[in-house]
Design goal:
The chain is of the alpha+beta class and 228 residues long. The chain contains six helices and 15 strands. The chain has three domains: 3-56, Roll (Structural Genomics Hypothetical 15.5 Kd Protein In mrcA-pckA Intergenic Region, Chain A), CATH 3.10.290.10; 62-124 and 209-222, Alpha-Beta Plaits (2-Layer Sandwich); 130-206, Alpha-Beta Plaits (2-Layer Sandwich), CATH 3.30.70.1560. Strand 1 and strand 2 form a beta hairpin. Helix 1 packs across helix 2. Bound molecules: uracil. Residues 102-103, 106, 185-188, 201 line the site of uracil (URA).
């Protein structure tokens, strides 16, 4: 692929802008400045530097973010900055979107991609992708509450029972809840439905992916698409 096209596909701006970056000597490959926008490179395993920052070629883009509290997943945030502001400009420019949403005050694993089919596969209720939430409750978590979460509770917008795939106590006030769907405020509403209250919420797992312990809040990392 021509180098200007490589940069274009990876979110470095319009074709003209990418050709200009290359011609200006901003791009290095293998330690060599490449200033011909038309020079061809094999994209598999390609690593290039733009203004001294290394990028690996990815199609599609799939990344994970350790979402901190105080960020909204909406594209048009109203009260807090958007999670998009935690991603670098090339990822934003190539159109990555959050895969599902977390509330402003929820922390933990949030995935993004520019692959619409992947978003559909991971968020469609048909596919039952399990998500694990670590919940801190206001009141001690009882066996009866855990059983009701597993058996299913009625939420206010739907008479059908909504059940957790798993609900395990992890401490007096804490539990791990595994859900197959992603309804609006689902964890908070399920906790309320069993007479408790969610005081803090953290997503630790999404499908086969677990939030790495060495990824600090606010930081992002590439994800191997084969794992999703
Ligand atoms: N359930 C909630 O209530 N909030 C989240 O952010 C995610 C799941």
């Amino acid at each position: 692929m021509r180098l200007a096209q490589v940069l274009f596909t990876q979110g470095f701006g319009a074709r003209r802008v990418c050709a200009g970056l290359v011609a200006a000597g901003a791009v290095r490959i293998g330690g060599r400045v490449v200033d011909d926008p038309g020079e061809e490179f094999a994209t598999e395993g390609l690593v290039f530097e733009v203004d001294g920052v290394a990028w690996a070629f990815h199609v599609p883009a799939v990344v994970m973010l350790h979402k901190p509290a105080g960020y909204e997943c909406s594209q048009k945030p109203r009260h807090h900055p958007s999670v998009m502001s935690l991603l670098p400009a090339p990822l934003r420019q190539r159109g990555v979107q959050p895969i599902g949403r977390l509330d402003e005050d929820t922390t933990g694993l949030l995935l993004f991609t520019d692959d619409g089919q992947l978003i559909h596969r991971l968020t469609s209720p048909k596919h039952h992708v399990p998500k694990v939430y670590q919940v801190t409750a206001k009141h001690p978590v009882s066996d009866e509450q855990l059983q009701r979460l597993r058996d299913g509770v009625v939420l206010d917008d739907d008479p059908a029972l909504v059940a957790a795939l798993a609900a395990e106590r992890t401490g007096v006030w804490t539990l791990a809840l595994t859900l197959a769907e992603g309804r609006y405020h689902q964890v908070k509403r399920m906790l309320a439905a069993v007479g408790n209250r969610c005081e803090a919420l953290h997503r630790s797992d999404f499908g086969a992916l677990r939030l790495p312990t060495d990824l600090p809040a606010g930081a992002w990392r590439w994800v191997d698409q084969a794992v999703c």
